[in-house]
Amino acid sequence: MKTTRLIIVAVGGQGNLLSSRVLGEAALEAGVPVRMSEIHGMAQRGGVVESALVFGDARSSIISDGEADVLLGFEPSETLRALKKCHAGTVVITNMSPMPPFTAAIGKGVYPDLDHLKQLIRAKTGKLIAFDSTALAKQAGNVMSNNMVLLGALVATGTLPVNADDVKAAIGRTVKANMVELNQKAFDLGFAAAKAAA
Which of 30, 40, 103, 126 has the greatest number of beta carbons closer than 10 A? Predict the structure, then answer.
């Protein structure tokens, strides 16, 4: 089976780890071998959280620089920071709603210009899907469902060996029962947004 390497980057509290768990469950549902690893960093203080998932035949969950086939970014500057993991054919899906770090918020740092950020990503990768997933999460009924919007967009690209039904079933098994419908709606909104952008 072809190996697909996925990196997910987010700021602590954005739901990266739940997204990884849902994808892992979906892969098991589909009978696809998957390996996962996580780097938590300073997640509780708004720092980066990075997950690596390797689908298919692989011996390790480590994704070295230049090896990621897909990069999913929950925050634009974190997506840019993870660009070193990509190669010329990498598919990048990113939220364009920024969460400036504390240093930028108090004027001690500068947040990157979003248009320039997109240009940099496009110049180094194969495809970019960039949209305001936070707005779609609000439309779904809860801004905390942003992670499911992004999963929907990710699955819509067809880059992973799991389909929408696998992932929606995994959402049903993984999130709290009273949040399943909202999260599946968020997934559908992200899926539709990525299809419209293609």
Answer: 30
Q: How far is CA 103 from CA 24, 37, 73, 79, 106, in A?
A: 34, 29, 20, 18, 5
Q: Is the pTM of this model over 0.85?
A: yes
Is the torsion defined by CA of 37, 80, 156, 88 positive or negative? negative
Q: Which of 9, 14, 5 is nearest to 145 (CA)?
A: 14
Each of the 198 residues of the chain gets a pLDDT tens digit; together they read 789 999 999 887 778 889 999 999 999 989 999 999 877 555 455 567 889 999 998 888 899 999 999 999 999 999 999 999 999 999 999 999 988 666 666 777 788 899 999 999 999 999 999 999 999 999 999 999 999 999 999 999 999 999 999 999 999 999 999 999 999 999 999 999 999 986
What is the domain count for the chain?
A: 1
CATH code of the domain in which 69 resides = 3.40.920.10
